[in-house]
Amino acid sequence: MADLVLANARLPDGRIADITIRDGRVFHIGSSDSVSGAERIDCRRKLCVPAATDMHVHMRDGTQKEKEDWKTGTESAVAGGVATVVDQPNAVPAIDTAEIFASRVSLAAEQACCRFAVNGSLNDTADIPSLVEAGVLAFGEMFAAPSSYGSALSPETIARVTKEAASFGKLITIHAEEVAPGAVHSLAEHAASRPASGETKTIALVNSLAPESAKLHYCHISSTESFSAMREGSTFEVAPHHLFLSYENARDAADTHMRMNPPLRTEAERKNLYAAFDKISAIASDHAPHTLSEKSADFASAPSGIPGVETMLPLLMNEVHAGRLTLSSVLEKTVTNPNRILGIESPALVKGARADFALYADSPVSISAENLHSKCGWTPYEGMQGLFPELTVVSGICAWKDGEFSRDGACFLRG
């Protein structure tokens, strides 16, 4: 017996079909006239696509639960068409022992409404073997430069921990920046203090320190300058804010809501990055929320980081709707490639595939923090256009439908 039928769905190839789901997997695509006993949802010929994997989120919680928690963070994810999130280990405390890792997983399991994994920290004291045994999916983001809740590692430590992580065959993700000392008081100063050239130099440094066997993935690349520095076989992600925002287009030259690491670049650099979309391995949100009160501090004191998991796909799908990006390229960089890089099964519209899907509205809307679900209560994309999903299915169960959330499809992805 089937569990769920998504009837009259428009598939990426343009066909109108019924998607029959059983036990969390696609059972049949075509007519469902003979199916009985299943929940049936009329998709009204709206676009149904595999739901995304966001391989770079900071779900906060614990000692930082005023910023975000697993409930609100994963509600944001599914409301934005994301079925799987990968939490970064620079939490407080850092995820550098099996005990802390287990506590983090338990905290997530109590609240999450999507599939989730938790990465292990690569810092001076990380117990890498015990983290592998405990079930980390990957290691990092490893900090080659300081950022919010992440201290820079020395070259000697980078060489040691990448060698040890590589010995277990685990993916190593890297935050590559070079940071000038001193306070910054504007978006332009922030960009100058963390230049694109430093990103490129740090990639080259890590390449020289990590063993050839290491599986390297570079996080939130902000400039096309860095593309040529990538080691053969390595992968990299770009965050939506570097595709859609620039410090030159900010409403205020010292707008703390536009402060993140790596920083926003010039409008010319943003356009170059967007034009190179097809060369990007993956798109990941770097969802890193802070409270409005924290962001209301003066620029020099305000923390870096913005929310983004709920708006990542809507921004990209709006570009598809407008004809500026192809649907196949967006699905490649938010579904196929992230899952391949992480080594996890990808959802697909074929029999037997994992049933994680998002059903998109016909028309975009203006993005407003009032309609988003992150606990932080703000968005840097206020007023921009986004094409949002009306329904998100996780493991064959409706995780987001008619404004309601379900945790029934959530699960921990053990590495």
Q: How is this structure best described in words?
A:
With 415 residues, the protein is of the alpha/beta class. The protein has one domain: Alpha-Beta Barrel (TIM Barrel), CATH 3.20.20.140. 26% of the residues lie in helices and 20% in strands. The chain has eleven helices and 19 strands. It has helices spanning 70-79, 98-109, 128-134, 155-167, 187-193, 196-209, 240-244, 267-275, 292-295, 312-321, 327-342, and strands spanning 4-10, 16-22, 25-30, 39-42, 48-50, 52-57, 82-87, 115-118, 139-143, 171-175, 215-218, 235-238, 282-283, 357-360, 365-366, 385-386, 389-394, 397-401, 404-405. The strands form five sheets. The chain has a five-stranded antiparallel beta sheet with strand order 5-14-17-18-19, covered by helices on one side. The longest helix is centred in the last third of the chain and has 16 residues, at 327-342. The protein is globular and about 65 Å long. The two termini are 31 Å apart. The model has no long low-confidence stretch (mean pLDDT 97).
